[in-house]
Amino acid sequence: MENTLPSPDAPARPFRVAVIGAGISGLAAAWQIRRLRPEAELAVFEQQHSVGGVLGTVRENGFQVERSADNFITTLPWGVQLCRELALEDQLVTTHPDHRRAFVVWRGRLHPLPDGFLMMAPTRLWPLATTPLLSPLGKVRAAMEFFIPPRRDDNDESLAHFARRRLGREVYERLVEPLVSAVYGADMERLSVLATLSRFREMERNYGSLIRAMRVQMAQRRRAGTSRDGHSRESGARYSMFVTLQQGLQELVDRLAQHLPPGALRLGVGVTTIRRENDHWVLTLTDGHQFVGDAVVVATPAYAAAPLLCELDGRLAEELAAITYTGSVILAVAYRREAVGHPLHGSGCVIPRIEGSPLLAVSFSSQKYPHLAPKGYVLLRVFAGGARHPELVSLEDTQLVPLLRKEVERLLRIEGQPVQHWLFRWSQAMPQYEVNHGDRLRRIAERLAAWPGLALAGNAYRGVGIPHCIQSGRQAAVRALGLPVEDQQTSSSAF
Ligand SMILES: Cc1cc2nc3c(=O)[nH]c(=O)nc-3n(C[C@H](O)[C@H](O)[C@H](O)COP(=O)(O)OP(=O)(O)OC[C@H]3O[C@@H](n4cnc5c(N)ncnc54)[C@H](O)[C@@H]3O)c2cc1C
Question: pTM of the prediction?
Fold first, then answer.
């Protein structure tokens, strides 16, 4: 690494780009940089001694366990597309067709999520009318959604406020809150509806009602040949709504790392500051060296990006530092099949806040993807913490494991000891898109406009899922290289 800035009369040197952070966002940025400027000299700085950030797969005694994300959505194209580019498409595994339904816990028991209920709105009314999860009054209130005047302004509101306003308190508390909590681990009273599930506000605005919008969209999909779960019936590969990789999601980040040029990946080397000097970017590294280059993609969590940038642009750093995060824990736990009383005929269950349980959700991992456990065993992943129970993330193992086990064993009628467990703690892994997150993104974009060659990527901005992170990395690469963004839709995720 260089320790000094190049002198003006030094011979021309290659275009140099740094990516900070080798999670999926940073690795996707590096992949895109290689595609767009293969001649550029690339350096990827990662403070840990391994790639992947929160992603990683553990293999032990025939079990395959994900440390955080265990699959990704296919209704956004960017995950599958990257797998295709990396020649990993034949490794994609779809969820078991018999185990795609989800359950909701109500009064300590699992009930099927009403068929066709998609996060915040029903595509079908009959399953909602017959579910034991709602009282008769709750059902009447939900049906009234059809007649509630729509809000047509552009102002943000919390997800809780939106769901209660449209569908009533019961649908919010017993369906929407647990489903959204399982994804974002967030406080629904603070989570921005526009930054997380804006399509539902668009439905309200465009169709006057969520129920009406869902029905129109379903009819359109039927005509276009796409099924209710977004599963394409057109020719070409067919995927379920979620997919994983045969060898685990570690494979995705490992494959991206393998494609980096020799010497580009600098594991165990963090970045401490980013400065601008004589039209160059100067990075101070934890190994005592500096990197001097022409473009930088910062693909760390926002709270880690803020201190790097505070000397360069205090207001940008303040905006980044104001993005809050929650933590979570995952207890992956394996039992003999016969020890589990529940038939586990689904993908997992979500647990509403009003149940008073420490759990957010339980994924029936080896039911979704049978290759994750040896025959005769089941692998479950128990999620807890989030904004509901932040204290759990720092609880001692000796208290945490029995607490989570007791709860899951009661819910799923499990008798006897597990054969093995793995505990993963994520103290600040999930960004919270609070109400008016969109305004913050606009202010961040304004600050960045003053810094050509600098771009941000990661889950803190426009989506927490793996496909969004991939897209944010690729778009950050485009921006850092000073190239025009392709179209309106993709430019919206570019920083
Ligand atoms: C428990 C959990 C479950 C999830 N489940 C799913 C799921 O099922 N499906 C899905 O699509 N998504 C899921 N997600 C979300 C998704 O996994 C993450 O949003 C995504 O992996 C984040 O990737 P990233 O690269 O933006 O950030 P990270 O993975 O956090 O990577 C950032 C990297 O930057 C490095 N870094 C930080 N500071 C510095 C520095 N100063 N210098 C150098 N390096 C630095 C860090 O060490 C880290 O490696 C889940 C997330 C969690 C936490």
Answer: 0.94
- The fold of the 16-53+251-323+434-491 domain, in CATH, is FAD/NAD(P)-binding domain (3.50.50)
| 330 touches ligand 1 (CB under 6 Å) | yes
Q: Is the CB of 459 under 6 A from ligand 1?
A: yes
The finding on whether 24 has its CB within 6 A of some atom of ligand 1 is yes
Among residues 198, 194, 169, 204, which one has the least CA distance to residue 434? Answer: 194
C-beta separation of 333 from 340 below 8 A: no
> What tens digit of pLDDT does each residue of 84-122 get?
999 999 999 999 988 889 999 999 999 999 998 888 888
User: Which of 48, 54, 368 maximizes ligand 1 atoms within 8 Å of its Cβ, making it the mutation to test the pocket?
Assistant: 54
H helices of 363-436, in order, are 365-368, 397-411
Tell me: the pLDDT tens digits for 57-83? 999 999 999 999 999 999 999 999 999
CATH number of the domain located at residue range(s) 325-431 in this protein: 3.90.660.20
Domain boundaries, the chain: 16-53+251-323+434-491, 119-224, 325-431
Q: Are 370 and 344 in contact (CB under 8 A)?
A: no
First to last CA, the chain: 27
Same fold, 119-224 and 325-431: no
119-224 folds as: protoporphyrinogen ix oxidase, domain 3 (1.10.3110)
Are the C-beta atoms of 479 and 453 separated by less than 8 Å?
A: no
Ligand 1 near 239 CB (within 6 A): no
**Minimum CA distance residue for ligand 1 atom 53:** 429
